[in-house]
Write a structure and sequence with these properties.
Largest sheet: none
Helix content: over 70%
Strand content: under 5%
Radius of gyration: 17 Å
Shape: elongated
Number of strands: 0
Order of helices and strands: HHHH
Number of domains: 1
Oligomer: single chain
Length: 90
Amino acid sequence: MIYNCKLYITNKNVKNYKELWNREPEELILILGECINLYKEYKDCYMETKDKVADMPKGKTFDFSETAIFGKFEAFVRRLQKLIDIFSNI
């Protein structure tokens, strides 16, 4: 998902981050926000599924490391938020 967000942000040219600085700040802020919303939706779906499994009488436990699942994406989201701050000031 992070790679696809990078493709979306850089107009499918991940290796050329200069493209990022050539875009309109308002447009870029919207795109970065969409990537953050993807993370939130992904985490919400995970939590919803985890709760459903926990409510099942004979279901297996949904015991995965959330840090392993979300750690890199959370770091990516923090960087996106910093970029939003930068482009909001431009």
